[in-house]
Here is the input.
Amino acid sequence: MNSIASHHTADSPARATEPEALVHFEPLSALWLDALLSIEGQAYTHPWTRGNFQDAMVAGYETQLLVNQHHELLGYFVAMQVLDEVHLLNITVNPAFQRQGWARVLLDALSLWARGKSAQWIWLEVRESNARARDIYVQHGFVVVGQRKNYYPTFEGPREHAVLMSLKLWS
Here is the structure.
């Protein structure tokens, strides 16, 4: 288990007198599926299903959970490697822990894992309407490289376009 000491920011709910919180990464297992599905349902209008996550585990995709010392699930990512590229399939921060820097921690972990697998690129799609996530990706070094038309389902009307982004890992 890898542990990381978090540093609370001004907008973090932690008080200055509290000790630093320890977090760690662990692979997704069946024991975490119910908690993960609850977060997925809170975070998305069209969440992944239990079957989607089970298929990702069976396929051997990188499925990492970020867990704090209270055994709370802060977030997770699912990524697939194909040759020298990694495709980020899902990244989610528990809504109860958003705006605390955990998305950056997840992206850093993804980048380190991808580099360790000798990947040259990370690719992702993000809803065109998700400006907050796009900003986080840009701050992390991703650039917009295209658009996938009618990619995401919606409840009413036409499907939503996806913004295609990439991060070059090696110069």
Observations:
- The chain has four helices and eight strands.
- Helices lie at 33-43, 50-59, 102-116, 131-139.
